[in-house]
Amino acid sequence: MTTRKTFPYVKPLLNLKDAPKWKEQTEGTSQSSGSKRSRNPDATSQQSDGRTHIDINHDPLDLENKQPLRQPFVRNKAKKRLHRLRALVEKFDRYVQVQANKTELMTRMEQKIINAQTLFQEAQEMLQT
Prior knowledge:
Residues 18-77 are annotated as: Disordered. By secondary structure, this protein is mostly helical.
């Protein structure tokens, strides 16, 4: 059993069907016999060199969408996740720094409180004597 594949030459086909050489044949009169020149009334004014002129930069599918191509959704989603993760890491780093500063400040405050209590006790002892 053979599997069917999609037609791989869709873009060239779309370019060729609009080429002047093929338009003459498809849009001309529908006579079943005779040469191509006998069907074309302007055959004396147009000389064909037998080549099909294709503009490789012309893509009819791109005419509809003038917007720049976006990256695939998966890549955008991964970038957003990475950005959120980096922001979360930065917040965590700031939290750790604040906690370290908080611990340092608490230690200093405890020392000042102990010093103040010691001074208060010494002052009370001096007043009692």
